[in-house]
Amino acid sequence: MGNIVSRYFDRLRGSGEAAITLPPMDGALRPNNRIEEAALVATVEAPDNLVSHEGRVLFSSGAGLRALGPDGQIEDLAAASSPISFLASHVSGALAMGLEEGRIDIKGGAHNGKSFTALGQTQIMAPSAAVFADADTLLICLASQRNVLANWKHDLMTFGTSGSVWSLDLGSGEARCLAKGLAFPSGIVLGAGDALFVSESWRHRVLRLTPDGKSTPVLDELPGYPSRLVAGPGNETWMCVFAPRTQLIEFVLREKEYRERMIAEIEPEYWIAPSLHYPSSYLEPMQGGGLKQLGELKPWAPSRSIGLVVRLDAEAQPVESLHSRADGRRHGVTSCLADEAGLLIASKGGNAILRAEQ
Predict the structure, then answer these.
(1) Which secondary-structure segment (H or E) carries 250?
(2) Cβ-based burial of 306 (10 A; exposed 0-12, middle 13-18, buried ≥19)
(3) Which keywords, in A-to-Z order, does the entry hold (predicted)?
């Protein structure tokens, strides 16, 4: 009863969960141009899911599985039956591939050729990320049970909380739910000891999951929507943030009638919602004088897209960050991969694979 009363007064006063104030990008998240200034490795349509597999760098582009050569050359390896939603590699040679149609395929390793369309009694609908716990166990994020991944804006605008995290035994097919009721989990990585970190996009945070099913926020109130988590050297982690939060979007999320009409009457590309790419159409919201004056981007102009990667320490706390700011073009960073030569970054919204110095 107390929570109901508290939420009522929060809405009345614009405080608590009803506030539209946002945390600043400061400290380790202080804006810079390191992504915008990074070296271009390859130009490719909507690159995603960078992963190191058997000495090669693999990535996806739509339904295509591709390999990235040392000089930026691209080799087509395979074509899936639907867009590839995640890739996960294991030293045994196994490669797990999630498909947006609702399937997980295993290529190579002891379980080569296996395919899964359900986890226990739960149909796979939006497989968003995965990591191998060992050669026989795959830890999987299902972002939503109401919307497919392509409809991620619908999930945000309807306050989706049907995401879950699973442990799948590849040998027996037995699946165990580790967490449910999550708001679009889209990144997962193993930490030190038995720690398991999961990014929860719509709640702007990173959770630590324990084997007994408990979840604890370790990084909260992020100024953007976190997605993939990628293991770095030591016990560090790289976190991709695919879009920024803005006061305008937070305001729309609180205006029920406006939001419902927007969903019903306007194409998702033109919603007041996060975006993976820099504005490219006059139909998009906040155009013209709202963003620019005399051809120059206003420094206070709200941006629906940015490029952002954050390095986290062993406790999932920010150490440094790389940015492509509002006036850049390398936005919608959904994947990265650390190696000896630096940090590979997939700008899905900018159609580019980049290499930044660490």
Answers:
(1) helix 247-254
(2) buried
(3) Plasmid
**Whole-angstrom Cα distance, residue 146 to residue 117?**
16
* Structure confidence by residue, pLDDT tens digits, 339-356: 877 899 999 999 999 999
Q: How far apart are CA 246 and CA 20, in angstroms?
A: 9
Dist CA 286 CA 269 (whole Å): 13
Q: Which CATH class is domain 27-278+303-356?
A: mainly beta
Task: Examine the pLDDT at 290 and tell me if it is beyond 60.
Answer: no
Q: Is it the case that residue 131 has pLDDT exceeding 80?
A: yes
Q: What is the mean pLDDT of residues 283-297?
A: 64
Work out the average pLDDT over 40-62: 96
Q: Collect all residues with Cβ–Cβ distance below 8 Å to 57 and sequence separation of at least 6.
A: 50, 51, 67, 68, 337, 339, 344
Domain ranges of the chain: 27-278+303-356
Q: 3-class DSSP state for residue 98?
A: strand
Contact residues for 199 (Cβ-Cβ < 8 A; gap 6+) = 185, 186, 187, 188, 205, 206, 207, 226, 227, 228, 229, 239
pLDDT value for 35? 96
- Give the global pTM: 0.91
